[in-house]
């Protein structure tokens, strides 16, 4: 299995290939579709699929709810194992903090949901409550 230093002989490569090699996307075609869909930015501007990336560039990648801001640390021509792929980039501290905050907010939002759907009796009581309150507000 080749290590990172053996793969480091590349100066620049296409952004779609690098995102695939760094394991942000499962296939190059999914990587290409994400770029064309405006999910990848460099300097707050959308990138094109053929954009050449170099070491030190900062990319913002939107995947589902998560928006990651990463700095490219290395380039590799070979898609390797996940631990090797994680050495190709570093996520910024601000990005990590923002993602954790948003994840916490999503979890808290899900806790506000009721545990079960209202039964038929519950629905009747809700509709009666709404009717009673609507009639009171109309009379005021």
UniProtKB/TrEMBL annotation:
Q: Mind telling me which Pfam families this protein's record contains?
A: S4
Q: Where is the RNA-binding S4 domain?
A: 13-76
Q: Where is this region: Disordered?
A: 108-140
Matching InterPro entries, A to Z? HSP15, S4_RNA-bd, S4_RNA-bd_sf
Specify the signal sequence span. Answer: none
Could you tell me which Gene3D superfamilies the record lists for this protein? Answer: RNA-binding S4 domain
Q: Does the keyword RNA-binding apply?
A: yes
Top-level taxon of the source organism: Bacteria
Q: Which family does it belong to?
A: Belongs to the HSP15 family.
**UniProt name for this protein:** Heat shock protein 15
- Where does this protein come from, organism-wise? Acinetobacter kyonggiensis
